[in-house]
Amino acid sequence: MSKILVTGGLGYIGSHTVVELHNQGYEVVIIDDLSNTSLNVLESIHKITNSSIKFVELDLKNSVKTKEFVSSNKEIDGVIHFAASKAVGESVENPLKYYTNNLFSLTNLLNELKNLNKEINFIFSSSATVYGDPKILPITESEPIKKAESPYGNTKQIGEEIIKDLVNSSSNFNAISLRYFNPIGAHPSALIGELPIGIPQNLVPYITQTAIGKRNELTVFGDNYLTRDGSCIRDYIHVVDLAKAHIKSLEKLIKEFSKNYYDAFNIGTGKGTSVLELISCFESVSGKKLNFRIGERRKGDIAKCFADVSKANELLNWKSKHSIEDALLSSWNWEKHIKNEKL
Ligand code: WQD
């Protein structure tokens, strides 16, 4: 059985990926520094999988501890690297935190994996943010990578380059970068989901917190964009579909291990949904009337962004299966779970 290390495995996408890895029979080791999550997530993973998946609290910026961990886990066959800070706005205010946390952790980890001198299959959590404001839609992987719009986006661009250069320089590293569009939704058990700390930056948690009464009203950041209803369009993908894309990527690397393989894939649905469409979809699946108003545009937002996913469909044998309705209903069920459990 392949042993897979999941860094940031108690985070939103990490925890859903751990569950899917377990479901596929992989042995999983989770590391997380608990800076943006809690051990409640580990308990929930144990409940969902009915097994006690190994967890090690570790900050990958600590090179001594990272060396100790990797050298005592030599039998690792694959790594899925989620551990990173991910708030775009915060990265603009505190860029050094992002460059240190996202890049120093990555190079520490890669250094120690390289020292194992064995085949390593590495999946990197990247983001559609690497494309900036796309020229052509839907976005394909050959869309030119533009200057990042935020330090967070820059760490994803640099991260991809670091990994690509490592793969080209070594005979025992293969890697895939997955460029996520907009992850939303929660596990069908409603035991794990997105748990933003403080005021949610992202649209869907803000919607569900408004619907449950935690927030007074949602502000739609602009309805005067050149789109079908004036609000921004995004490619919202169910987090369980996104998690499964990591399994498919791992299978590809493990089964087809070949020298110096590196590639990047868009992971989205291939469909665009506007903010106003998403709100009305939420209202119909939840039966709740959402309190929202139209406000000013948010700095840095782009009008339209959705994926061409044909490359992942073909080469990863992966396709998103859940609808926006599924995703929004799962988010709503998760929000109700948070309230009941006072998380
Ligand atoms: C979606 C749409 C907002 C909140 C970000 C990161 C990206 C990735 C996903 C990490 C936009 C509108 C939002 C609100 C609103 N994260 N909105 N009112 O900005 O597309 O992508 O999250 O990898 O890197 O940039 O997602 O959910 O913040 O916004 O009207 O209160 O919802 O203007 O059009 P975004 P988002």
Q: For the terminal residues, how far apart are their CA atoms?
A: 35 Å
What's the mean pLDDT score? Answer: 96
Tell me what portion of residues adopts beta-strand conformation. Answer: 15-25%
Number of helices: 11
**SS-based class:** alpha/beta
Bound molecules: UDP-4-deoxy-4-formamido-beta-L-arabinopyranose
Helix-strand pattern: EHEHEHEHHEHEEHEEEHEEHEHH
Q: How is the largest sheet built, in terms of strand order?
A: 3-2-1-4-5-6-11
In short, what is this structure?
The chain has 343 residues and is of the alpha/beta class.
Describe the 3D structure.
The chain contains eleven helices and 13 strands. With 343 residues, it is α/β, with parallel strands linked by helices. The longest helix is centred in the N-terminal third of the chain and has 20 residues, at 95-114. It is globular, with a radius of gyration of 19 Å. It binds UDP-4-deoxy-4-formamido-beta-L-arabinopyranose. Residues 86, 88, 127, 129, 180, 182, 201-203, 206, 218-221, 232, 234, 275, 298, 301 line the site of UDP-4-deoxy-4-formamido-beta-L-arabinopyranose.
